[in-house]
Amino acid sequence: MHPDRMWRSAEPRKSYDVIVVGAGGHGLATAYYLAKNHGITDVAVLDRGWLAGGNMARNTTIIRSNYLWDESAGIYEHALKLWEGLEEDLGYPLLFSQRGVLNLAHSLQDVRDGVRRVEANRVNGVDAEWLAPEQVKEVCPIVDVSPGVRYPVLGATYQPRAGIAKHDNVAWALARAASDLGVDLIEHCQVTGVEVTDGRATAVTTTRGRITANKIALSAAGHTSVVAKTAGLDLPLQTHPLQALVSELLEPIHPTVVMSNAVHVYVSQAHKGELVMGAGIDAANSYRRRGAFHIIESQMAAALELFPVFARAHVLRTWAGIVDVSPDASPIIGLTPVENLYLNCGWGTGGFKATPGIGWCYAHTIAHDTPHPLTAPFTLTRFTTGALVDEHGAAAVAH
Amino acid sequence: MKYDLIVIGAGPAGMAAAGTAARGGLRVALVDSAAQLGGQFHRQPPPELGGGNVRDDPTHERLGRDQSIEQAIQAPAPRRDFLRLRDRLTGVDLHLGCRVWAVEPSFAVHHDGGTLTGERLLIATGAHDRVVPFPGWDLPGVMTAGGAQALLKGNLVVAGRRIAVAGTGPFLLPVAAGLAAAGARVVGVFEAARQMGALARYPAKLAEGAGYAATLARYRVPYHRGQAVVAAHGADELAKVTVAKIDDGWRAIRTREIECDALAVGYGFVPQLDLPVQLGCATTRDSDGSAIVAVDDQMRTSITGVHAAGETTGVGGAELAELDGIIAGHSITGTPLPDGVRRRRERARAFARLLHEVFPVRDGWRDRLRADTIVCRCEEVPYQAICDAQALGAVDTRSLKLLARPGMGWCQGRMCGYAVARLAGEDPPPPRRPIAQPISLQNLAAYPLRSTNDDA
Ligand SMILES: Cc1cc2nc3c(=O)[nH]c(=O)nc-3n(C[C@H](O)[C@H](O)[C@H](O)COP(=O)(O)OP(=O)(O)OC[C@H]3O[C@@H](n4cnc5c(N)ncnc54)[C@H](O)[C@@H]3O)c2cc1C
Ligand SMILES: Cc1cc2nc3c(=O)[nH]c(=O)nc-3n(C[C@H](O)[C@H](O)[C@H](O)COP(=O)(O)OP(=O)(O)OC[C@H]3O[C@@H](n4cnc5c(N)ncnc54)[C@H](O)[C@@H]3O)c2cc1C
User: Is the ipTM reported for this complex over the cut 0.85?
Assistant: First the structure.
């Protein structure tokens, strides 16, 4: 990309007020809201590769806010409300399509969890419905809801305001807006270390030289633990590849988004007509951006039972991203034991939907050196205090 | 059961290597997506068409003139070469009709009917046509030269009644000669290159060319140098083409129109690197700028246990491919190379380099694109969309793809990859295709479960 025309290409300067490590969706949104909401524009966003070439370029773009716990509903619903006005705010088409998301239930336990989640969502002001199999069929006629199959559909939660967006457009729009407000976006600049003096982060070393900063904010997804380690922080994160795949273009046949946590399959039809399918995470830890084929093989077998019409669709391409999974499947956001060093990670398989919300709250946290109320529950210390936000039911493999 | 060697691609390179390795005592599997052995040059019709009858298809009725199509396309010398290669395959397990969609280290070869495992791999997946877009190139009736030849050799189907053959390279000659001998009226061969004197240094090759030239003369097919088809026209299908005299940069000078119902157009070949790239084999550039697998003088790639041979290591014709295969086979079995093989290969390789020099592809074709000329057929991306993306700031192939989607459809950029890269001012990067051939979800789902992913 030639930044001059979408955003300004910057050479790293010697010093900044704030350095954001990682130009994924989160890093870019953080920089945008630092400038917009807090007037902090002496900011550089550094990325080891292309701008938004990490998970931001690789995710299946499901956006929803129907998480179980109050803490999660808070941050995700905040994000969803921002999504609803983001296109206008950024003045750029994001192809945000609120086509609804179905989460299928295949067992009695799934049904109980789903019904409970719908109730919890309603209490939190999140739109949510419980659908019986016939209603599932009405929303998405191509799902096989017949009883005799291996994964019978016993019902589904449905969030009508949920949907998908075009990830690249989101990244470019945020980059352009941040750049217009004075933020430096610096590609191919890998952070190799965080310098800590007297318990305080003061600079980063990079492949393009040393840069000092008053504040350093990590947002490097699957690589956050690697960078944090250089500051002496050992994060409770496991890094895994997560795969997705895409088919040839088909006529419009799939009107909504269908997720099935039990079989680890997530399917939507993108704007042009290709099916986008997310798989489950590879069990092994790895930083390789290529997953194992047996994962998608077994998951596609399950997907075909749910969608028999896709049998003759072809997989044209698969890819993987490197995701950072925390012990309770919730993100880690906020201050760290190192002064002036901030943390945003652990989004695992589901952080795209949070992009504007986390950018908003992380910027606040950095600007005020205090957690934003919506992200305050997601501290690093919860793994020692035990105040976990256990979203394994709703989020373990949920995009 | 684990094979000692799995050879992917049953063209001259793969057949020669498989035969050599089997004679050296190895358990060898030879895999190809085609139903018949032979690859591109030795492509064979299926047995049920073996009698030389054109397929019973009303749009392609038999046009044979003074000989059967089969005779027309099975010149005696190549036929002998093919039979020799085939007869050496005794003991080799053939897996034909198996499209390999992925290979995994040490070594699992996944095809649409299952998985083969082997200690070593030899990749001989050949090349495909290099496509250069021009106005009207997406009309029915316009096809690649390789496609026209594959129809003829593999299906005994003549692509049209009045056919123009255009592009650049020696490959246009056998295509035109084959079509003419099979009964089509070939209205002309339009070869972009002009200066071919340097080829005289290779008398044997010259003789081969003279053979084709004699065939063209017999059927009164005019051969024009320094000319190109710059546009194709027709309402629903091809009706005529615009032919131009072109300068050294391939800009059109003077044009005329010629009626025809088929156009076979070929601008050389692009090596097929999906599988070696999947394995992480180092690549390098051929003298024409094409990405190729890097091999040493034993045809070993940078990945232990993986050899490559034939056009994946550089386009250069069937003889070179076969010699590559022989060298790879002996390297794998550790048996001594017969006298003269290496010398013949050096000569064939030098000739291939000379062909790249004599038949270059120049960027002048870019001037012919109009706003509505389709660049990527699968995603229906017109030239204007490429220009718009460039205006937005896309200065490289990757950004063009992100902004305008060329190369993201069915063929994953095999067709448009060259053109899009040149429009971005780059040599085409090595292809990254984690799935080498589209695989249907039902075939993928039919894989036996290996290990399951515990709840994540
Ligand atoms: C296949 C797949 C499907 C997914 N589907 C969904 C979905 O449907 N819905 C959803 O909400 N979420 C989904 N996710 C998760 C989502 O993509 C991530 O949680 C989210 O993108 C993470 O935030 P980010 O965009 O900032 O990350 P990234 O885009 O990964 O950004 C991190 C950046 O940090 C950079 N970096 C790393 N190390 C360094 C260093 N040392 N120095 C400088 N820079 C560095 C990287 O290059 C990268 O650009 C999916 C993820 C994958 C892989
Ligand atoms: C369409 C075409 C026509 C040609 N005609 C001539 C000609 O007339 N004269 C001439 O001198 N040269 C011709 N050439 C050049 C020709 O490619 C070489 O001369 C010679 O055939 C190269 O041999 P090879 O063994 O390297 O590859 P090829 O002969 O191309 O054989 C490669 C084989 O690999 C198989 N394959 C590729 N990918 C996969 C996969 N993923 N799974 C399974 N199988 C796979 C293909 O089906 C093919 O059979 C032609 C090339 C093309 C593309």
Answer: no
